[in-house]
Amino acid sequence: MRSSDTRAGIGDHGLLANGHGAALVTRDGTIDWACLPRFDSPAVFAELLGQGAGHWSLRPCDQGATATRRYLDGRSGAMAFRTELALRPEFGLVTPRHHRRQGGLLARGGATAFTVDSAVDLGLGTTPSATFTVEAGDRLAFDVRLCDPWTDPPAPRTQEDLAAIADDTAAAWRSWSGLHQSYDGAYHELVRHSGRVLQALTYAPSGAIVAAPTTSLPEVAGGSRNWDYRFSWVRDASLTMEALWVAACPDEAEDFFAFFATAAGTDLRDGRPLPIMYGIGGERHLPEVELDHLGGFADSRPVRVGNGAWDQVQLDVYGELLGAACRLADQLGGFSADTAAFLVELADAAAAHWTDADQGIWEVRGGPRHFTYSKLMCWVALDRAVALADRIGGEDRVEAWEATRDEIHRTIIDRCWSPSAEAYAQSYDSDLLDASVLMMLIVGFLAPDDPRARSTVEAIADHLTDPHGFVFRYLDDDGMEGEEGTFAICTFWLSHCWALLGEVDRARALFDRLTACANDLGLLAEEIDPATGDMLGNFPQAFTHIGLVNAAWAIHQAEQASGRPAR
Fold it and tell me: Is the peptide bond preceding residue 37 cis, with omega within 30 degrees of 0?
C-alpha cells in the first residue's frame, strides 16, 4: 500500500474513458481513481482521495525503473512486473471477499460484485496480487467487470476476447478521430487532442457531458474548496459543444440538445428557472454530502459527493445553450420540434429574467448580485435567438427579442463600466475586476476596435494575473473560505482576446506558457498553482480544454486575417 507522502500529483495522471465512466492512472501504472459504471457512480478505486480507499497497480518490480508513456505506446525488452488489485467499492467503505473462478476471481461485497479475468494467477485475500515477467512481443490482458452480486456472474473472458476488445477500442477512437477531426489551423495537434479529451468526457447513453471525471481535487493543497464535478453543467456542456465544432465536428449535437430539453421538462414553460446542472442521466436532485472517512487529496478536506450549487439560479445558462445552438445550426440541418420549442423557451426565459440577480458563472455562495457576465449571456441568448428565429419557429417573437436585447446592451454599457478601473467590472456599479468580462469581446458584444474593449483586456492583464501572466477569476471575497490558483480557462480567454485585438504575439506567448503546464499526455486541470506551476482542481477539466480550443482557433483566424504565415 502506498503511503500518502508518495501519492501521485494531480498532473501525474492519465485519463481512461469508455463513454460511460472514467479512470485515472498514474505514471507508475496505478489506477487510483475509477467510478463504475458511470462517471458519477461511487468510486471503486479512490486512493486518490484517501489512503486505503482502493487502487489497481500494474508496474515494474524495479523501483528504479523510468516510466515514459503516451496513448497507444509500445514496449521492448523483458521486465518483471507486479500487479496488485485492491477493490474498495463505495469510496473505500467496502472490502469484498474474493473467490477463485475459471480464468481469475469473483469478488463480492456490499451492493457490488466484480469478475476479474487475469493473464496470471492472482492470489486471494483482501488485495490479490502477482509477480510476472513480460518479454518483448508479449501481450497480457487483465479485466475487471462490475456485475450484479445477486445473479450468476458473466462468463469469463479469454485473453483473445480481451485482446479483441482492446483492438476494437483503439480502432473506434481512430475511426472517430479520422471522421471528425479535420482542424488544421494553429496548434492543430493540441486542438485535436483537446477534442478527444472532450469527447472522452461524454456519457454516450444520454449525450450529457461531465465537467470533469473527478471530485474534490483541491483548488489549493490542504484547502477546503473541493467540489464534485462529475455532473453535466449547462454552461460547461454547451461550451464543450462549441469547442467540438472547432476541434471535432461532433455528430452528437442533436443528442446534446435533446438531453437538456428532456431533462428540463416543463420548467421554462411553467416559469421556473432552468437548472444549471443535471446528473448525467438527467437527474435533478444532487445534494452535497461530505465523506468524512476520506482524508482527501494532500489532506484537503472535506471530500464532497454531490454539488450544493445544483439549485442555484444562474442566468448565463440561456445564452450558453442558444450560443451552442447557433454555432451548430448548419451542421444539424434542422432542430427537432422538441428542441426548437426548448430553444424558444430559453430565449423567452432570458427576456423575462435578465433583470434578476443571481449567483453568476462562478457559483458564489454569498448573496445574489447583478453580475455583468449573467447580463451579457442573456444578451447572447436573445441575439442568437433572433439569428435562429426562422429555424426554431420564433419569427413572431423577433421584434420583442430585439427590443429586450438592445435594452440589455444599454444597461451593461451604463451600469457595468467602471471609470476608476477603466474596465467593465464584475457587477453593476462596481469597481471589482472579474475575468468573465473578457467574454464581452469573445461573444461579439464589444467590437475589437472599441477602446473600452482594449482597456478592459489591459486592466485584467495588469491587475488580475500572477507573475506568469496567468489569470485569476477575481480577487474579492466570494463568501467561501480558502484560496485558489489561477484559472486556466480565464488565461485562455485572455489569450483569445489578445488574438481578437490583433496582438498575435502576446496571444501566442501566453498560450504557449499555459500549455507548457500540461502533463506528458497533454492533459490540463482546472487551475495552476501560482507558486509552483503545479495543476490544481479537478482533472482533466473540460472547461480548460474548451478554452484551449477556442484560443487556438482565434489565433489561427488572427494570423489568417493579418496575412502572417501560420506556425
Answer: yes
Q: Which of 526, 562, 508 is nearest to 10 (CA)?
A: 526
Query: Can you state the angle between helices 398-415 and 372-392, rounded to 10 degrees?
Result: 160
For the segment 501-533, what is each residue's pLDDT rounded down to a tens digit?
Answer: 999 999 999 999 999 999 999 999 999 999 999
CA atoms within 13 A on the CB side of 284: 10
Burial of 302 (0-12, 13-18, 19+ CB in 10 A): middle
Contact between 15 and 523 under an 8 Å Cβ cutoff? The reply is yes
Give 156-199 pLDDT, tens digit per residue: 999 999 999 999 998 998 888 887 888 888 999 999 999 999 99
pLDDT at 462: 97
Q: Which residues contact 201 (CB under 8 A, 6 or more apart)?
A: 17, 22, 39, 209, 210, 211, 212, 213, 240, 540, 542
Q: Would you state the cell numbers that stand for residue 342, as one nine-digit string?
A: 426548448
Please name which of 14, 305, 34 lies closest in space to residue 145, comparing C-alpha atoms: 34
CA distance 5 to 3: 6
State the Cα–Cα distance between residues 473 and 471, nearest whole angstrom.
7
Phi-psi region at 516: left, alpha or beta (left = phi > 0; alpha = psi -120 to 50): alpha
CB 542 within 8 A of CB 212: yes
In the chain, where the domains are located: 20-151
Nearest to 542 by CA among 163, 69, 208: 208
Written as nine digits, the cell of 77 is: 525488452
Q: Which pLDDT band, with edges at 50, 70 and 90, does 334 fall under?
A: confident
Nearest residue to 133 (alpha-carbon basis) of 228, 205, 62, 225: 62
Q: Is 74 helix (H, G, I), strand (E, B) or coil?
A: coil
Please give the distance of CA 556 from its chain centroid, rounded to a whole number.
Answer: 24
Q: Other C-beta atoms within 10 Å of 422: how many? A: 15
Grid coordinates in use for 141? 490482458
Q: Helices 451-463 and 488-500, interaxial angle, to 10°?
A: 140
Q: Which of 278, 253, 251 is nearest to 264 (CA)?
A: 278
Question: Do 343 and 382 contact (CB within 8 A), yes or no?
Answer: no
Query: CA–CA separation, 451 vs 429, rounded Å?
Result: 20
Partners of 14 in the β-ladder: 25
82 CB-contact burial (10 Å; exposed 0-12 / middle 13-18 / buried 19+)? middle
DSSP result, 364-424: -SS--B-BHHHHHHHHHHHHHHHHHHHHHT-GGGHHHHHHHHHHHHHHHHHHSEETTTTEE
Q: Facing residues of 423 across strands? A: 418
Q: Reply yes or no on whether the pLDDT at 252 is more than 90.
A: no
